[in-house]
Design goal:
With 226 residues, this protein is an all-alpha fold. The chain has helices spanning 3-53, 59-67, 73-99, 107-110, 122-143, 153-172, 178-188, 190-195, 198-225. Helix 2 runs antiparallel to helix 3. It is a multi-pass membrane protein. Belongs to the MIP/aquaporin (TC 1.A.8) family.
Length: 226
C-alpha cells in the first residue's frame, strides 16, 4: 500500500470513529468514551499502517516530523493532502449516515462533532491546543526514535491522545489535528468554519516547536559524542 493512501485511510478512520462517537453515541458513552474512541483509533491505525507511513494521521504531526528532520518536504506535502482528504471524506460519510436518521438530523441543534470554544475564551482554547500538541509531538518523536521500545509506540501515542481529550474537551474540543477539525466544520456550518483557523494555527505552532526542540536536542547529542 502506498504511504499516501495509508495516510488517507488512517485519517479517515480516526475522524470516522472519533467523530461518529461524538455524533451518534456521546450520550451513551460520555466524554470518557469519546476520548477512548479517538485514542483507540490511533492505536488501531498505528499497528495496521504504521509500518507503511508511520501513521501520522495529522498535518500537525507531519509538520513536527518535517521540522525534526524525520521526513522530506515532498512527503510532507503528500501526507497533508492525503490527511485533509481523508478527514473530509470521513465527515462526508458521517453526514450521509446522519441524514438517514428517522425524523432527520438537525446539525444546527445537535452539532456535527466540530471543534470550538464556548465555555472558555479563544486564548484558553489556543493555549490548550498549542500546549497539548507540543506534548503530543514530544511523545510521538520520543516513542518512535531510534532505541525506543517501538513495539509499544502505538499504544503510548494512542493513550496520550486519550489523555489529551480527557484534559481538554471542555476547553477547545481537544483537536490537536487540523484535518480532524476541518472535515466536520465543512458540514457544521459557518460558525464552525469561523473558528477552524485556531485548529490550524495552534496545533501547528505546538508541533513546530516540539520538532525544533527535538532536532536541537539530537544535534547537541551528536555533537557531544563526536
Amino acid at each position: 500500500m502506498h504511504k499516501y493512501v495509508a495516510e488517507f485511510i488512517g485519517t479517515f478512520a480516526l475522524v470516522f470513529f472519533g467523530c461518529a462517537t461524538v455524533i451518534f453515541m456521546r450520550a451513551e458513552v460520555g466524554l470518557l468514551g469519546v476520548a477512548f474512541a479517538f485514542g483507540l483509533s490511533v492505536i488501531a491505525m498505528a499497528y495496521s499502517i504504521g509500518n507503511i507511513s508511520g501513521a501520522h494521521l495529522n498535518p500537525a504531526v507531519s509538520l513536527g516530523m518535517l521540522i525534526a528532520g524525520r521526513m522530506s518536504p515532498r512527503d510532507f506535502s503528500g501526507y497533508i493532502v492525503a490527511q485533509f482528504i481523508g478527514g473530509i471524506a470521513a465527515a462526508a460519510v458521517l453526514y450521509l449516515i446522519a441524514e438517514g436518521k428517522v425524523g432527520g438530523y438537525d446539525v444546527a441543534a445537535n452539532g456535527f462533532a466540530q471543534n470550538g470554544w464556548g465555555q472558555y475564551n479563544v486564548l484558553s482554547a489556543f493555549v490548550f491546543e498549542a500546549a497539548a500538541t507540543f506534548l503530543f509531538l514530544t511523545v510521538i518523536l520520543g516513542a518512535t526514535q531510534n532505541g525506543a521500545a517501538s513495539a509499544y509506540a502505538g499504544l503510548v501515542i494512542g493513550l496520550t491522545l486519550v489523555a489529551i481529550h480527557l484534559a481538554g474537551i471542555a476547553v477547545s474540543g481537544a483537536s490537536v489535528n487540523p484535518a480532524r477539525s476541518l472535515g466536520p466544520a465543512l458540514f457544521a456550518g459557518p460558525d464552525a468554519l469561523s473558528q477552524v483557523w485556531l485548529y490550524f494555527v495552534a496545533p501547528c505552532f505546538g508541533a513546530a516547536l516540539s520538532g525544533y526542540v527535538f532536532k536541537a536536542g539530537v544535534t547537541r547529542q551528536v555533537a557531544a559524542t563526536a
